[in-house]
Design goal:
Blueprint: E1 9-10, E2 13-14, H1 23-38, H2 44-54, E3 62-64, H3 66-72, E4 75-80, H4 90-103, E5 108-113, H5 117-129, E6 132-138, H6 139-144, H7 146-154, E7 158-162, H8 169-183, E8 187-190, H9 200-208, H10 210-222, E9 229-233, H11 238-244, E10 254-262, H12 279-282, E11 284-288, E12 291-295, H13 320-327, E13 331-337, H14 338-352, H15 358-369, E14 377-382, H16 390-400
Parallel strand pairs: 4-14, 5-6, 5-8, 6-7, 9-10, 9-14, 10-13
Antiparallel strand pairs: 1-2, 3-4, 11-12
The structure holds pyridoxal-5'-phosphate.
Length: 412
């Protein structure tokens, strides 16, 4: 089967693997996605675009990174999603779905969050649109992402701690789906990436595709042609699909999805643990959160706990469309490890005056390993800004004694 838009299947991936109680919610949303997002009923898309501009601060610039270009010997351009309101691409999707909830007549919104970026974006969108907002967040994540918990509460959202399992994103998603099954009449579930049952992977991609729509247009002006390559980090894959979507038909543009290689590749079956989050490049086929996709799992199909120094990439699955594009050899999955990402964080901060999110630092780190030609123009999607990561970066850099990290003697 091909990359069909309306069935939710991308080859063998995707689908609607949900319990019967969730089917009414999923069917209602499938219908709303078709009417409002695909067919622009009631001018939904026009309204969304206006709000992305006025509230979200779009379009974001595409600019040449002069110092990185000199360092690598080819042109590097940065797509600045770190400049979207809230500091990451996450708002593109959260605003789209919160607005859709309003058009569907729902006054309550729920969301899962891991690092807290999607929860924060959803809380901001709900405050702006006057919707009630409840966020499910694992206890472990609440403790390690405190500033984002404060931000969500400041925007008036309730944060529901999830104490089961490892207390991270997987459990938070399970709880949000459980809530939705019994509250669908007045509630919309804003999923945070291109994952989950159809229509979520297609719908989230549609909202994030504004990144490549702008970048494609801007590259003609800024580069003078289409780029030779687009590079983006992949957790669930929403900034990746957003940055790639409008370039997919352009065969001459190479697409690189950079995953978190963590501290090592592979799955430690006995510990039910993967010291990485590289599901796209190294995972096997299974079902998680309503979709068939590539997963980090044991031979028995148990999803393992994943790892990345970057909380936003720390997920054992990946979007089904990305899995399909990798099988079709349209997208190349690559990975960089925790150390590479930390170095890239410091490099961009020092050499270009931009503090990138640790997630985005993975995409930037790939430039160190890639073998581009000197006349290549490479676009890197800077999915978010790194202020949220400063505590982690200071701690992890000190542990590793990284030469490139600034010393923090001043505090002693
Ligand atoms: C800045 C940033 N980039 C990337 C990601 C990864 O998500 P996705 O793969 O859906 O873009 C996150 C997730 O929290 C994020 O905050």
């Amino acid at each position: 089967m091909s990359r069909a838009e309306n069935t939710g299947k991308f080859g063998q991936y995707g689908g609607q693997f949900v319990p019967e109680v969730l089917m009414p919610a999923v069917e209602e949303l499938t219908d709303a996605h078709r009417r409002y997002v695909v067919e622009n009923e009631d001018g939904f898309i026009d309204d969304f675009r206006k709000r992305l501009r006025n509230f979200g601060g779009r379009p974001t610039p595409l600019g040449r990174a002069d110092n990185l270009s000199e360092r690598y010997g080819h042109d590097v351009y940065l797509k600045r999603e770190d400049l979207v309101h809230g500091g990451a691409h996450k708002l593109n999707n959260a605003l789209g779905q919160a607005l859709l909830a309003k058009y569907m007549g729902k006054d309550r919104v729920i969301a899962e969050t891991g690092a807290g970026q999607h929860g924060t974006a959803t809380a901001m969108a709900c405050a702006y649109l006057g919707l009630d907002c409840e966020i499910y967040m694992g206890r472990t994540d609440i403790n390690r992402q405190r500033p984002n918990v404060f931000r969500m509460r400041t925007h008036g959202a309730d944060v529901n701690p999830v104490d089961v399992g490892s207390g991270t994103l997987k459990e938070a998603t399970n709880e949000a789906m459980r809530d939705w099954a019994t509250t669908v009449e007045d509630t919309h579930y804003v999923i945070g990436s291109v994952v989950g049952p159809h229509p979520f992977p297609t719908m989230v991609r549609d909202f994030q595709a504004v990144i490549s729509e702008e970048a494609r247009e801007q590259s003609r002006e800024v580069i003078g042609s289409l780029p030779d390559a687009v590079v983006a980090c992949a957790g669930g894959g929403s900034n990746t699909m957003g940055a790639f979507h409008h370039f997919v038909p352009d065969d001459a543009v190479s697409l690189y999805a950079v995953e978190a290689g963590g501290s090592a590749l592979g799955v430690e079956e006995a510990e039910s643990y993967a010291p990485n989050s590289a599901s796209l490049g190294t995972g096997t086929v299974g079902v998680l959160h309503g979709a068939r996709t590539k997963l980090l799992q044991t031979g028995e199909g148990q999803i393992v706990e994943s790892h990345s120094v970057s909380a936003g990439l720390d997920y054992a699955g990946v979007g089904p469309e990305l899995a399909y594009l990798v099988d079709e050899e349209r997208v190349t999955p690559v990975n960089v490890d925790d150390d590479d990402a930390l170095e890239a964080f410091h490099r961009l901060s020092r050499e270009e005056g931009i503090i990138p999110a640790l997630e985005s630092s993975h995409a930037l780190a790939y430039l160190e390993h890639a073998d581009f030609d000197e006349d290549d123009a490479v676009v890197v999607n800077v999915s978010g800004r790194g202020d949220k990561d400063l505590d982690t970066v200071i701690e992890e850099s000190a542990k590793r004694d990284l030469d490139i990290a600034p010393d923090m003697e001043v505090f002693r």
